[in-house]
Amino acid sequence: MKTKENKGITLIALVITIIVLLILAGVTIATLTGENGILIKASEASEQTELADEREKVKLAATGALAKDNGGEINQSHLEEELANYFETEKYTVEPGINDDGTEGYIVTITENDPNGRTYFVNKNGNISDYIVREPAEPTEGTGTNFDMSYGVIEVEFLSGISYNTTTTPNHPVLKEGMTAITYNESTGETINVSNSSRTDWYSYVAGSGANDNHASHWANAKVTVDSVDSYFVWIPRYAYRIIYFDSPDSENKYRAGTLTEKDALASGQILGYSDARGIVDTEGKTKEGVAVQTAISVNDKYFKTHPAFENNVDYGGWSSKLEGIWVAKYEASSVEGNTDASDGDNVTTKHIKIQPGVQSWRWITVGNAFTNAQNYNTTLNSHLMKNSEWGAVAYLAESKYGRNGTEIILNSNNSYYTGGGSGTAYISSTKQSSTGNIYGIYDLSGGAFEWVATYYNGSTNNLNYGSSFANKGGLSTQYATAYTGTVASTAYKYGDATYETNRWNSYQASSYPSTYPFFARGGSVIQTYSCRNICLFFRRDGRKEC
Asked: Can you give the pLDDT at residue 38?
């Protein structure tokens, strides 16, 4: 019997055909729209082309601005004019700024293709790079527990140039005209001029080992000659710091010695808190006192912060621009003309400062006249009365492993107020009074006469006339003087100033403003007499001076 031939599509065949078509469709869609699909790749290619075109326009604008400035440093107005040749005026902005590596230039934001804006950095030589935005360090949400801050270790990381990049080699001392790099014959105290100051073998900032007093650091020294009179200064290079607070001197000494790690100390409750880029926080990172959120310098995931003395925020004791370092008077200031030891003869602005060892410090002077004399010392080198922040920068480096490594600086107890521990060459044998424990450090930080600093509490108007040369300026900070605010004078402080952060260290109470006298004095032992220690600050190696 002959069967009927089936020429149609069976149901099974139809299902299989549909499945194959769906698979092919899926593959096609994935090829077009998947993570690495044709459409995505095409979009990325278009965006890259757009980005390259935009960047090229910024580069051409920078080149044009450089040509207008005859190959010198780019001018902001010229850069804006050139950008107008490539972008609509409302589609770009230009503002001065500093990139992550410390390079100065201009931040150019273009919103032509991206409403959120694409940002470029144009340095003053016309080079284009990405603008890197560094994130601030935020404390953990919530108020931290109160803890004892009596025992702490200050850790320091040197920074390169005016950047936030850490380096094992501190910034080379910036020497200006009239300055001579020197070393010492440690036996005789004789100064020796450095023939080639561009070398680095005439100074060293060496980390101390273990928990021992460090005598190996030879901080850079220089001599400044004014009217044939030599004065001596010490270089404090730009650095970042953090403070770890321990439960006892034993714990902090074990940490310095390397027999106690931070991890183990945290686990056993021997660390109580920190002062770092997050502010003063407990071990959970919650704020204990104030919030000083700063851009963090990450070192092994730790929140270091730049010491404010080197920054360009005058409210926190900084300068008008970022600094590679500061030069600090090696001894308390004295006068070329000598002292009368009475306000009638010494509270004047007609005498001249000198910074030398083995001479009586200049006392019986108001803070205002000390401020004026310090500025008059050497206007070319921007000399000025030390601010609280700058005193703190010296104190923190001295306390760190690059200074005395936690060893207390011995008091200058000379009751005749001789600098360097006594008359003549007493400084040679008084090196325990130095910030480095050797002849290369800064003397008279502890003992001697109290030393005025250009800092005042603006919550009080009492006796402000004594510092009218800088204090009656509307209660605002300047690069030469810092105004402290707060409802209670005794709790007014700023990070890095060696007051609240280090209160009660070595059993000493941090100085505070008397209720009737809003000025700050540091480092002395007899409250009736005051001295001034002036400090020279210099800028970048390009010779720029911003006053």
From this structure: 58
Distance CA 474, CA 109 (A): 36
| Partners of 405 in beta bridges | none
Per-residue confidence (pLDDT) for residue 540, from 0 to 100: 31
Query: What is the residue-wise DSSP string for 393-438?
Result: HHHHHHHSTTTTTTPPPPPB--TT-BGGGSSTTGGGT-GGGSTTSS
- Please report where in the chains the tokens 């680095």 appear, as a residue: 200
Neighbours of 347 (CB within 10 A): 18
Q: In angstroms, rounded to a whole number, what is the distance separating the alpha carbons of residues 385 and 332?
A: 11
Distance separating alpha carbons of residues 484 and 515, to the nearest angstrom: 14
Residue 325: name the closest of 83, 541, 45, 529 by CA.
541
pLDDT single digits (tens) 2-12:
444 555 567 77
In the block, which residue shows the tokens 């607070």?
A: 245
* Contact by Cβ (8 Å): 310, 392: no
| The pLDDT of residue 284 is above 60 | yes
Cα 137 to Cα 305: distance, rounded to the nearest angstrom: 9
Say whether pLDDT at 29 is over 90: no
Q: What is the largest CA-CA distance in the chain?
A: 144
